[in-house]
Amino acid sequence: MGRPEEGPFLAATTSAREEYERFVAANPSLEVVEVLITDINGVFRGKWLPGSALGKVYDGSFAMPLSIFGLDVWGREVLETGMHLEAGDKDGHCYPAAGTLKPVPWADRPSAQVVVNMYERPDLPYFADPRHRLAAIVDRFAALGLTPVVAFELEFYLVRPDESPAVDGRPATVYSRRAGPEWQNMYGLSDLADFAPVFDDIRRAANAQGLPADAIISEAAPGQFEVNLYHRPDALAAADDAVLLRRLIGSVARRHGLSATFMAKPFIDWPGNGMHVHASILGPDGKNIFANPETGEARLMEAVAGLVHSMPSSLALFLPGWNSFRRLQSGSYAPTRATWGHNNRSVAVRIPAADGAARRLEHRIAGADANPYLVVAAVLSGILHGFEHGLRPPAPVDGNAYDEPCPLLAHNMREAVHAFDHADFIRRAFGADFRKVFADVKRAEIREFDNEITPLERSTYL
Questions:
Q1: CA–CA dist 285, 308 (Å, integer)
Q2: Domains in the chain: ranges and CATH
Q3: Which of 303, 328, 317 is closest to 420 using CA atoms?
Q4: In this predicted structure, what is the pLDDT of residue 14?
């Protein structure tokens, strides 16, 4: 099903070998290697190897089943994808992603982790690997002499797993034991101080792994926080940062007896967790094309128009789960309409108040549970769509976008997956094979939720 549309991204290069040799020299007591590959849902799959086996990841002899990309969010086979026993459940070749070999500072034993890419053959990237799908989009920009610059903002809740009620599974936030009403303490420094040991360990671990973590913020609900990542002129590295930061935060939280959840909407009456993407584009001269005094505004408007136009088709990538759509509520700071505006946090695509080299757009739709590789691939594909067709956006929204008569986004997973599966934009951006597999996986997940009788139904009708 794969096609040789991308050049080989093999690990058997001088730089990769040097990275491996430097790491082994600096970590001679290595006991465990965690090999990580991101599935369609953004969930890490992989293996633990003894430290002595790290070399096999770098000499091309490490393999994993291609069918990893045909699993649903629960890790079960989706037979409609055709990737499992009916295809022989073949192994693919796994090669390490440059710059991802890092120590694991929260592990009990000397450990390392490395992200790998999947190949059907040594010279053929596997079509269903989300990292390859993003790489293909980046290559399209490179062919035009353009380089995307990307940064993520990730929101999450800290919860106490030992206090979650068994009846409905509703998690207990870290502030659930305090007396008095629940409150908003947005940007509250006291909330950060309450969990300083957790955030100190997050920052130390990020430094140890070379993750460019920036600000840590107390968000709009009790126990909700946000970590920002610095921008990168390398979209693949930026997406690596996001998936690895989610893993890091969850792992550090567990060391403190807590859980970190990136679930899009864990509480119906509190804000959801978003994944905001900031993007700009460098030209052949290495300068931000959006900052060009003569053509920058026109190029920025083309990018915005492409994102608004492609939004309905791409929504299933930004909101990949049943729960994801609960986050899009009026007044929630999560967009409900295909809108854009200047310095306006109620729209889907925001132009921040920034000038010069910092001129950029902010894409605000994705939930924190989405796959960062696919989110960035969809955002960059939308921008490129606007460039290629010279699109012009609708009028910007200056006030409350929830009150504007602009097109509504899909209300549920079923509508979004249907639009995705029938979109020519998705076929051109991601390929027909990937479009089918992603839709097959999502339809299988929808069936499971259709077959679940909720506690509310039982309490009402039983």
A1: 28
A2: 14-125 (3.10.20.70), 141-430 (3.30.590.10)
A3: 317
A4: 60
